[in-house]
Each structure stands twice: as C-alpha cells, then as structure tokens.
C-alpha cells in the first residue's frame, strides 16, 4: 500500500485509485434506458442469463474519472525523458501520427480487392524500397510484426537455405553473451541449439573464440551491431569472412540501426539478413505493448526464401504475391494479412520527411547525445568500456562499491526524481549494468537536467545514504512491488470477495 499521512489516502492531486469493481455501487447506472418491451425469449435459442455478469455499476462521471486517472499514472515518452537503453524511446513526430490517421490509410480492410488498395501497396512497396536503399540489401520481408518476429523470420530463411543445399544438419547458432534475450529465444524456436560466444575486455566479440566455435554444424551467427554495450563491432568484416568461410550465414540484429542509419550500409559488412525495428528507428509509439514491426532485409543468398506476402510490380499495377511464384521458394507465411500497416505508414512518413540528410543527422545526433552523457557522467559513475560509445552509454555498478546501494536502488531513486530509469542489469556481460540511451530527440537542456540528477544521486550514494535508497521510491502511488511474484503469479482477474 502507499504510505501517506493524508486522511483520504490521496497524495496531492494523485488519487488513491481503487479497482473499478471496488468502485461499483449496485443499482447505480450511467444511462437512462427505456423499459424493454415484451421480450422474445426464444431469440437466443433458449440460452438465458442465469446469474448476474458481475460487472460493476457506475455513473458516467465515475467511469470517465477512473480511466482518465489511470491514464495519468502512465509515464511515457510524451511526459518525460525515457533513457531506456536498447529500446530507443524517442519522440514520435506528430506528422507521422497525422499521416497514419488519414481515413484512406486507417480505414482500409485487408480483404479489399487489390485494385482498390493500390495506394496502400505503394506505401508497402515504397517503404520496402527505402529499407533496401538504407541497408544496401536486395530484398526485404515486410510482414514480421516485431524485432523478435523478424529474427525468427530471418532464421527460418536461413534454415530453408541450408535445407535446400542439403545441409539441414547445420543446427547450431552462435550468439554472443551480450545478445538481447530474444536472439537465443528465436534460435531455440527455430529448433536450433544456442552456443554462446564470449566478449573481449573491450566489449566486442572475441574473434578467436568465434573462429574456434565454427564447424560444419553451424547454421549462422547472430550478432548485434552496434552491440548491446553500445559499441561498434570493429572486426565485423573479419567476422563475416570467418562465418561465410565455414559455410554459415550471418544474421545481424538491427535493433540498433538508429545509430548508423545513413552512415553504414549493412550490405557492405557482409550481412545476410537483419531485422529492422521500425518502432525503434523510424518512429511509432511503443513500449506499452502496442504494435511494432520488424521487416527483415535479406541478401541474394536468402532472398528467394522470403515469406509471402510481398509486393511485385505486375502488368496491372502493384500485386500482392500470396502463394508460390516462379523462381521463388518462400518458406511460408509469418503473419496473417500484410504486416503492421499503420507502422509502415509512420515509418515511410518519417523517412520521407527526414530525407537522407535528416536521417544521417538523426543517427549522428543520437551518437553525440550518448557520448555527451558518457563524458559528463564518467567521473562519478563507472563507464564499462574505454573510448567513445555509439548511441547508448553503458555503466556498471563499480561506482556503488561498498555504498550498500545496488543498481536497482539507484534506478528506484531516479523514479522519485521524476525520471523513468535507464535499462538495468542488461547487458549481462557487465556487473549491475546501467544502460542509457538518450536518442537524438532530447535537447541539451534535458540531458543537463538528467545529468545533474544522476550526479546528485551518485554523490548521495557515496556519502552513505543507503537507507534512503533502499526505501525509494517514496513519491509514487505504490512503493516497491514484488516484481518476481507479479511476473510468476500474475493476478489478472478480479473475483468477487477476493479483495485483490
Ligand atoms: C528491442 C530489441 C529486440 C527485440 O525487438 P522487439 O521488437 O521488442 O521484439 C531485439 N534485439 C535488441 C538488441 C533489441 O533492442
């Protein structure tokens, strides 16, 4: 429960919110309905309500206030700075939102005849064109619905390519220890075994260790670049050569593409496939469980195996290929319909409104902002690796040594200061990680305010304020939750009398 001295339990104008079921008052009603006329009881084939549904009875203002107050308890990119590393929480231009809401785009139905949706197919085809252009890759599968889904799609293409060559026995996938958890999970879902590769002291893949793991049963390497330590894999060309030399493919996790857009064409790095998180790099509000999109670009070696559907330029305009086609060997389909269309619209609007100079500037500014954070915080926090970073700055918990304060306590104290915490305890390759990604959309003022708070908290921690940190957050509607219990045993249904 929240701890407060007020009579009501409320804190300032923050209302202590009950569940809507607890607010309900039997007999209370929000609308006046006319008395029903004689009811034809047989219209439901004899199925009749036997007991109350258990829905709460409330007035209209009660309902409006309840949901408005709940919405105000959310913290989002529209309310404040959100330095969550790896997730790229950045401002979504309202222009992209406006375009996505145009009725001609928002009100389409996936079953409409193709000749009535030529404009929509042009959006898909136009976005595919720019994704191929920005990566230098010859093909792209547009339908995956998230980054992890794109990983799975790319791995399925790799599996099909190996099977086609009679090399279906390649079942091992190499994954660096710093990888995002979705990488090994996607490989496992494809039926592969996962073999971890260690990092060197400089935070990059250990090329010798990688070479030692290569063999005739390796299907591919999954590498993130820039990696999850915020570092460019400087030996990536050597890595690609080694992988290809062993007859395996090179998968790149492109979630951090926002650090290199307009600067590096991934085709030049020897990559065979890479998913792009449209919702991270190319705008789209995410993080609340909303839709994302993970189009996966493919090299010539994998292009034929791309899943359906895809758009081609046919005799009568644009056509959506939904089945087998001369010369192609699609491994199947990964999603109903045609992909996350609303996200495509936002991404295309973003790309076209930024232009090539704008995209290049966005990735440069993202890297500049992260290096600014790293430079201004390195004397009080402990930066994990020497030298400049890419779009995110990684610190570990050495600066908290002997203070009695943990990374978790530090993050909770940030909440009291009005900031969403950075990513904690990821990547796993450093102890007690604090991963900060400011993105290009934050101003120097915002970063300076954040820096002042982090510096202040670091000073407090070192001055022996462990008790204060342990009891944070104090200013939130709830204090520390049992996150493990909540994840393992979530209570998702309200039951009458359970008081939960
Ligand atoms: C976000 C992320 C993913 C997964 O993407 P989703 O869209 O959340 O499925 C994979 N790898 C990295 C490095 C990421 O940051």
From TrEMBL:
<dbReference type="GO" id="GO:0016594">
    <property type="term" value="F:glycine binding"/>
</dbReference>
<protein>
    <recommendedName>
        <fullName>glycine dehydrogenase (aminomethyl-transferring)</fullName>
        <ecNumber>1.4.4.2</ecNumber>
    </recommendedName>
</protein>
<dbReference type="GO" id="GO:0005960">
    <property type="term" value="C:glycine cleavage complex"/>
</dbReference>
<dbReference type="Pfam" id="PF00266">
    <property type="entry name" value="Aminotran_5"/>
</dbReference>
<dbReference type="GO" id="GO:0005829">
    <property type="term" value="C:cytosol"/>
</dbReference>
<dbReference type="GO" id="GO:0019464">
    <property type="term" value="P:glycine decarboxylation via glycine cleavage system"/>
</dbReference>
<keyword id="KW-0560">Oxidoreductase</keyword>
<dbReference type="Pfam" id="PF21478">
    <property type="entry name" value="GcvP2_C"/>
</dbReference>
<dbReference type="InterPro" id="IPR020581">
    <property type="entry name" value="GDC_P"/>
</dbReference>
<feature type="domain" description="Aminotransferase class V">
    <location>
        <begin position="171"/>
        <end position="287"/>
    </location>
</feature>
<feature type="domain" description="Glycine dehydrogenase C-terminal">
    <location>
        <begin position="362"/>
        <end position="462"/>
    </location>
</feature>
<dbReference type="GO" id="GO:0004375">
    <property type="term" value="F:glycine dehydrogenase (decarboxylating) activity"/>
</dbReference>
<dbReference type="InterPro" id="IPR000192">
    <property type="entry name" value="Aminotrans_V_dom"/>
</dbReference>
<dbReference type="InterPro" id="IPR015422">
    <property type="entry name" value="PyrdxlP-dep_Trfase_small"/>
</dbReference>
<dbReference type="InterPro" id="IPR015424">
    <property type="entry name" value="PyrdxlP-dep_Trfase"/>
</dbReference>
<comment type="function">
    <text>The glycine cleavage system catalyzes the degradation of glycine. The P protein binds the alpha-amino group of glycine through its pyridoxal phosphate cofactor; CO(2) is released and the remaining methylamine moiety is then transferred to the lipoamide cofactor of the H protein.</text>
</comment>
<dbReference type="InterPro" id="IPR049316">
    <property type="entry name" value="GDC-P_C"/>
</dbReference>
<dbReference type="InterPro" id="IPR015421">
    <property type="entry name" value="PyrdxlP-dep_Trfase_major"/>
</dbReference>
<dbReference type="GO" id="GO:0030170">
    <property type="term" value="F:pyridoxal phosphate binding"/>
</dbReference>
<keyword id="KW-0663">Pyridoxal phosphate</keyword>
């Amino acid at each position: 429960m929240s701890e407060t001295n007020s009579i009501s339990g409320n804190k300032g104008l923050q209302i202590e919110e009950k569940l809507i079921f607890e607010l309900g008052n039997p007999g209370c009603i929000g609308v006046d309905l006319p008395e029903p006329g004689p009811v034809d009881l047989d219209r439901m084939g004899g199925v009749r309500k036997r007991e109350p549904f258990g829905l709460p009875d409330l007035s209209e203002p009660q309902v409006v206030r309840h949901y408005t107050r709940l919405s105000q308890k959310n913290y989002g990119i529209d309310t404040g700075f959100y330095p969550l590393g790896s997730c790229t929480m950045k401002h979504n231009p309202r222009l992209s939102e406006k375009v996505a809401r145009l009725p001609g785009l928002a009100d389409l139905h996936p079953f409409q005849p193709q000749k009535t949706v030529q404009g929509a197919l042009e959006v898909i085809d136009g976005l595919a064109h720019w994704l191929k252009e920005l990566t230098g890759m010859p093909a792209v599968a547009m339908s995956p619905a998230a980054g992890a889904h794109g990983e799975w799609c790319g791995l399925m293409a790799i599996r099909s390519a190996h099977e086609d060559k009679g090399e279906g026995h390649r079942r091992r996938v190499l994954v660096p220890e710093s990888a995002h958890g979705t990488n090994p999970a996607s490989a496992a879902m494809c039926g592969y075994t996962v073999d971890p590769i260690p990092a060197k002291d400089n935070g990059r893949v250990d090329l010798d260790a990688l070479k030692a793991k290569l063999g005739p049963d390796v299907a591919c390497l999954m590498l993130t670049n820039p990696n999850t330590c915020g570092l460019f894999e400087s030996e990536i060309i050597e890595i690609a050569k080694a992988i290809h030399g062993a007859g395996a493919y090179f998968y790149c996790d492109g979630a951090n593409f926002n650090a290199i857009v307009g600067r590096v064409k991934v085709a030049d790095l020897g990559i065979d496939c890479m998913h792009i998180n449209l919702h991270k790099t190319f705008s789209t509000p995410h993080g609340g469980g909303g839709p994302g999109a993970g189009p996966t670009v493919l090299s010539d070696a994998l292009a034929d195996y791309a899943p359906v559907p895809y758009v081609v330029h046919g005799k009568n305009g644009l056509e959506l290929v939904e089945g087998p086609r001369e010369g192609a060997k699609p491994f199947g389909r990964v999603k109903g319909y045609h992909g996350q269309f609303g996200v495509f619209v936002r991404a295309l609007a973003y790309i076209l409104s930024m232009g090539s100079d704008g995209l290049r500037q966005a990735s440069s500014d993202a890297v500049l902002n992260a290096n600014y954070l790293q430079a201004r915080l390195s004397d009080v926090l402990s930066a994990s690796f020497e030298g400049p970073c890419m779009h995110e700055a990684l610190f570990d918990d050495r600066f908290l040594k002997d203070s009695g304060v943990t990374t978790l306590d530090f993050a909770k104290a940030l909440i009291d200061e009005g900031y969403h915490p950075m990513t904690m305890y990821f990547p796993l390759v450093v102890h007690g990680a604090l991963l900060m990604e400011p993105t290009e959309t934050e101003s120097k003022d915002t970063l300076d305010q954040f820096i002042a708070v982090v510096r202040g908290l670091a000073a407090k921690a070192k001055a022996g304020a462990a008790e204060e940190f342990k009891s944070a957050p104090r200013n939130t509607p709830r204090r520390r939750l049992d996150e493990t219990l909540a994840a393992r045993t979530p209570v998702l249904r309200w039951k009458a009398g359970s008081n939960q």
